[in-house]
Each structure stands twice: as structure tokens, then as C-alpha cells.
Design brief:
By secondary structure, this protein is α+β, with helices and mostly antiparallel strands. It has five helices and four strands, in the order βαααβαββα.
């Protein structure tokens, strides 16, 4: 049986509005980039944070494949607001592993990878 770990990022996530799926397919085929246009209107720090989260998720997925389940929770959502209180988030982002706050802020990939490995090891030892 493959052990899995939940990796959650709490951050300010830009809301991207779109039309129905068929309309979005048509817009994409026509060469229009609705989502990227909306994304570019957000402040630079928000865009940088989301790109760093994306890079971390790609790296984690490359190294751990389906053993890590991702969640990105928006601070502006009701769930995000409650989690920010519950986990006493003090910065613009927090990282949770299996429901425990591990980082205030974004870690380097090697540091995150070490925490994930430690979590997998603890799961194996408690079986």
C-alpha cells in the first residue's frame, strides 16, 4: 500500500473568472488568453508567490508522483480565513503537511522535500 501525504498551501489566490467550458475552449482555440490576462493584473508579489508555489508543486510531483495530494487554499475564502486563525498564520503564506503547519512562508524545495521525507518515514514507523 502506498502512503500518501497531504500538502496544503495557504495563500492569497487570485480569483480567475471564466465562461462555460465550451466557451473557454473556443476562446483558447481563437488564441485569446483570458486567464493569463487576468493573472497579469494582480500585484507582482502575488504573482511571484503563485509562481513559486507552482514550481514547488511541479518539483514535488516530479519526485513523489501520486504519493502527495495537493491543496491550495485561498485566505480570502471562508475555509482559508478559518485555517489562518486555527494555524496562527502570520505571513502571506503557510505550508501544511497532513494538517500541521510546518512553514510560515515558502521554503526552498530541498527543505520542503526533507519535511515530506520525514513525514513519510513517520507514517511507515507508526504502521
Amino acid at each position: 500500500m502506498v502512503e500518501t501525504v497531504r500538502l496544503e498551501f495557504l495563500a492569497l489566490v487570485p480569483t480567475m473568472f471564466s465562461h462555460c467550458q465550451h466557451c473557454m475552449d473556443l476562446l483558447r482555440e481563437s488564441g485569446l488568453k483570458v486567464h493569463s490576462q487576468q493573472f497579469n493584473e494582480y500585484p507582482e508579489d502575488v504573482k511571484r508567490t503563485l509562481l513559486k508555489i507552482s514550481d514547488l508543486m511541479v518539483s514535488v510531483n516530479r519526485d513523489f508522483q501520486d504519493r502527495v495530494k495537493f491543496r491550495l487554499t485561498d485566505f480570502a475564502s471562508p475555509v482559508g480565513f478559518l485555517k489562518s486563525l486555527r494555524y496562527r498564520v502570520r505571513g502571506p503564506i503557510a505550508v501544511l503537511i497532513n494538517g500541521r503547519k510546518i512553514f510560515d512562508g515558502l521554503p526552498d524545495y530541498e527543505v520542503l522535500k526533507a519535511e515530506l521525507m520525514k513525514t513519510f518515514l513517520m507514517q511507515i514507523q507508526t504502521r
